[in-house]
Specification:
mainly alpha, about 70% helix, Arc Repressor Mutant, subunit A, about 90 residues
């Protein structure tokens, strides 16, 4: 059941971006406590690239990423797929 749930949630992202950049971006962003700069550092891209990708993700899933339920849904889907890892240390503030 978890696999079906994650497939449904992530299908829009994987269909739109077979390279996996959108999935990597949302995973890095969630791992970075939804902060742009640490996510960009993790991905080794410019912060504007992360913002552009996050806007694209919002358009694809039809939900704003600033809402907790959207973040939780994505986190659960990534976790069920085995794509999300918990941060290993405390976030930089």
């Amino acid at each position: 059941m978890a696999q079906t749930f994650s497939d449904a949630v992530l299908a829009l992202l994987t269909d739109a971006d077979p390279s996996g950049a959108l999935l990597a971006t949302v995973e890095a962003w969630l791992t970075a406590n939804c902060q742009i700069d640490p996510a960009a550092d993790r991905l080794q891209v410019h912060r504007h690239t992360v913002r552009t990708r996050l806007r694209k993700i919002e358009q694809l899933i039809g939900q704003p990423l600033d809402q907790l339920d959207t973040r939780v849904e994505l986190w659960l889907a990534l976790t069920a797929k085995g794509l999300h890892r918990l941060p290993t240390g405390r976030p930089n503030t």
